[in-house]
């Protein structure tokens, strides 16, 4: 692939680079291959981008196969190079023979037409496969004709992997006993399936636009009533469409799609499941899709003894100050600020997470209520609640940042001193929690 693109570069106005990812699975052989690729890039006068990763560690951590982990890390690396170096496309060397292997691999796993269609020649994620219509034998013959050296991955000869057994055993046996032109038949079938898939993709996208909404770039909500009103086949496609935008190059199995439908059909809200790099949580009449949040830290209380600033071990920063005269009118513009009746405020203030049994008297309400009931009324998703901070004082919880002030400390005409509280995230986890909360409350306000 590299030699072909290099020869076409001037005519096609291509600006090329070479990227190589070392999976660290074959020791010295892997390092020799990296050196071979680096030498090839140097001889062609092209920039070289090298990466490596712990494939075995990723497979253990995510409970996936070595091959799936290798593919995920490799594609993540290639996309990082593309974005950071301002390349337009990542060109991959898949051939027509790879399509045949993938067809039978997915067939024996019970894939539907979405899987059996094979790889696209071009994807919205910037991947292109220029050799997808060319057989491996043709490419090997060209390399020999041009006297171009190449290396073969010896792990492709191991029957330990199912894909290799497809290539080495199943396909040759089918060609010998059933159809000598088996590969051509499979290519025709996959081409037909891709045409069908393009048509069905339009229906899926229309369903997505009707049933789903983006709350943030990394948070989508899918209406359960609208999902379940669709025909069964379109339900599965819609779930794959929604989930697929959050996964890092991972196939979505039929079992996973069924589990998502079971989550949607459940009678109770609050269920959740994790699929690869995406968490799906039931939130009322919606399914929420988002990258998993880190587990909330152990509950801890941070005291602010007087006016000033304090930072909590779980990543929040709280500041208190008395506002000068003249007193401000109305309410703070920023949800990160709260104006309290300083006459009723009792230091020290406590910055902490929510605790079981918490009660809260929201501003304007007739009395206290369970914090859980307040958050349900505010429609805050259950999966987000354990990550929220609260500020407590002598009157109990006096502020739920981003949501509501407590009634006993609200500013009144008789207030002689106004205290301003300001909260801000102090690490990446709390910054993401705050961003999610503000996006949610903003959309909830628009819907109201």
TrEMBL record:
It is found in: Cytoplasm. InterPro entries: Lysidine-tRNA-synth_C, Rossmann-like_a/b/a_fold, TilS/TtcA_N, tRNA_Ile_lys_synt, tRNA_Ile_lys_synt_N, tRNA_Ile_lys_synt_subst-bd. GO terms for biological process: tRNA processing. It is an enzyme of class 6 (ligase). GO terms for cellular component: cytoplasm. Its EC number is 6.3.4.19. This is tRNA(Ile)-lysidine synthetase. It comes from Desulfobacca acetoxidans.
């Amino acid at each position: 692939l590299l030699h072909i693109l290099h020869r076409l570069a001037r005519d096609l106005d291509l600006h090329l680079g070479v990227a190589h990812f070392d999976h660290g699975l074959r020791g010295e052989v892997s390092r020799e291959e990296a050196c071979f690729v680096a030498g090839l890039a140097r001889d062609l006068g092209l920039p070289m981008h090298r990466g490596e990763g712990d494939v075995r560690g990723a497979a253990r951590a995510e409970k996936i196969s070595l091959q799936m982990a290798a593919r995920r890390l490799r594609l993540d690396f290639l996309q990082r190079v593309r974005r950071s170096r301002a390349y337009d496309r990542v060109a991959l060397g898949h051939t027509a023979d790879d399509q045949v292997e993938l067809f039978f691999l997915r067939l024996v796993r019970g894939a539907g037409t979405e899987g059996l269609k094979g790889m696209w020649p071009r994807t919205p994620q910037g991947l292109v496969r220029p050799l997808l219509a060319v057989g491996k034998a043709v490419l090997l013959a060209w390399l020999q004709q041009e006297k171009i050296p190449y290396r073969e991955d010896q792990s492709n000869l191991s029957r330990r992997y199912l894909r290799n057994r497809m290539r080495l055993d199943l396909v040759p046996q089918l060609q010998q006993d059933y159809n000598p032109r088996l590969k051509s038949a499979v290519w025709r079938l996959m081409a037909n399936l891709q045409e069908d898939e393009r048509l069905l993709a339009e229906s899926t996208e229309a369903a997505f636009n009707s049933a789903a909404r983006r709350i943030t770039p990394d948070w989508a909500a899918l209406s359960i009533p609208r999902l379940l009103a669709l025909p069964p086949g379109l339900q599965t496609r819609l779930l794959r469409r929604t989930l697929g935008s959050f996964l890092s190059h991972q196939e979505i199995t039929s079992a996973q799609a069924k589990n998502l439908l079971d989550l949607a059909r459940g009678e109770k809200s609050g269920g959740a499941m994790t699929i690869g790099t995406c968490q799906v949580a039931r939130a009322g009449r919606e399914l929420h899709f988002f990258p998993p949040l880190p587990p909330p830290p152990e509950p801890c209380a941070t005291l602010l003894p007087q006016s000033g600033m304090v930072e909590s071990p779980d990543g929040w920063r709280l500041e208190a100050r008395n506002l000068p005269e003249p007193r401000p009118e109305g309410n703070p513009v920023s949800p990160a600020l709260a104006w309290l009746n300083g006459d009723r405020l009792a230091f020290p203030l406590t910055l902490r997470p929510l605790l079981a049994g918490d009660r809260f008297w929201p501003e304007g309400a007739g009395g206290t209520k369970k914090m859980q009931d307040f958050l349900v009324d505010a429609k805050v998703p259950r999966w987000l609640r354990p990550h929220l901070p609260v500020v407590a004082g002598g009157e109990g919880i006096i502020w739920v940042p981003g949501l509501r002030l407590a009634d006993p400390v609200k500013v009144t005409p008789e207030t002689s001193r106004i205290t301003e509280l300001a909260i801000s995230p102090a690490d990446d986890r709390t910054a993401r929690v705050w961003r999610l909360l503000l996006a949610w409350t903003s959309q909830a306000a628009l819907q109201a």
